Amino acid sequence: MITLRCRGFLAMEIRIEIVLLMALERNSYMEENHRQGQPPGNYHLEDMVMKTAAQYFGTELLQYLGIQQQVHYIAPTELVQLEARQMYQDFNYELEDRSWLHLEFESDPIRLADLKRFREYEAATSRKYQVSVITYVVCTADAKKIRSEFTEGLNTYRIKVIRLKDADADQIFAALQKKVSASEMLKKEDLLPMLLSPLMGGTMRSKDRIKQALGILNESVMKVEEEELKKMQAVLYALADKLLDEMELQDIKEVIAMTRLGQMLMEDGMEKGMEKGIDLAKKIFRLHEQGETAETIAKQCNTSEENVRKILEK
Question: Cα–Cα distance between 213 and 221 in angstroms, integer?
Answer without folding.
Answer: 14
